[in-house]
User: Fold Pyruvate dehydrogenase E1 component subunit alpha from Cupriavidus campinensis.
Amino acid sequence: MDTVARFEIGFTRYLSAQGTASPDLPPFARDPAALLPLYRAMVLTRQFDLKAIAMQRTGQIGTFASALGQEAIGVGVASAMLPDDVLVPSYRDHAAQFVRGVTMTESLLYWGGDERGSGFAAAPHDFGNCVPIGTQVGHGAGVAYAFQLRGQPRVAVTIVGDGGTSKGDFYEGMNMAGAWHVPLVIVVNNNQWAISMPRSKQTAAQTLAQKAIAAGIPGEQVDGNDVIAVRHRVGEAIARARAGGGPTLIEAVTYRLGDHTTADDASRYRDDAAVKAAWAQEPIARLRDYLAAQGAWDAGREEALIRECQQAVAAAVDAYLALPPPDTGAMFDCLYATLPAALEAQRDMARQYEVGQANQPGAHHG
Ligand SMILES: Cc1ncc(C[n+]2csc(CCOP(=O)(O)OP(=O)(O)O)c2C)c(N)n1
Ligand SMILES: [Mg+2]
Assistant:
């Protein structure tokens, strides 16, 4: 048999788990001071996650999906984008959203079940959170196709989970992006789990990056716990897409250190030892160690940063709690261009139960 094609999957890491850097750092990362905003964004996300989980536990928001351990993916991806690019996220991408200018208050509104949490003042073209697994890849391909048709030098960036790559939507979206040669970057957050389903049981493929090969587009892996690698490789893919070079798939290898969401208890299906081992790889400590070794960080600055982030989170929570409730009709407004009659009836009924509504059924003393 002759060989008609040959493929390879590359892997990029600059920052080791011990916080040492390889000598060939990309230009943006050569000045440690330039890495401080990335570090801050990761720390802020972690502080936000802690608070959001506490808020779910006390009934102030609904179910919440933490990004614990995966902060480098969101921060690396979003910091490689231009403001005019469009982020098409999953539900675990608030690290990326915050870098894009989405506020923590908007994120809390989303998790509080409020429609106002799906529109972002500072990133008006970015998509809202996508909960159906993998469908955002098709949305991203469509956005990128629109950019191509309009001749705009913009790039769509979508983030999908490892589990999402087992879905038809993923293959279909990626296939169209390849066939149309559109400016789309697909980032796979391979956090090793799709709720309780481990990566090993989701696919027989050796890497998730190689799924790109079938779509005729470049696929590669990066260490998803190395913010420098994520930012650099995603940046290269974005630059290529912007220049007309078509889509790329980047698999960022990381680990979901927390539960799937606040509705999950991961201790029921996974080993403490594996989680402990994964903590030794996590993204924030390695960048902190690197910055400290460069003389760009110390305990005093760490303490001040944590305090500053906690204050920013607290202010966002205050703003969230102070907002008057949305209009009762709002939850129906964004569903259809024209609301079907059955939902119209539900909306009318919901209005009758509005707090403060004089003719509320059950408001006998009104
Ligand atoms: C179409 C669809 N099927 C099933 C679900 C239920 N579900 C929610 S999260 C999840 C696992 C997703 O895993 P992964 O893509 O790896 O993302 P992660 O949660 O790890 O970020 C599933 C199956 C869903 N939301 N959408
Ligand atoms: Mg996953």
Strands lie at 11-12, 86-88, 156-161, 184-190, 193-194, 197-198, 219-223, 248-253. Confidence is low (pLDDT under 50) at residues 362-366. The first strand starts at residue 11 and ends at 12. Residues 161-163, 191, 193-194 surround magnesium ion (ligand 2) (CB under 6 Å).
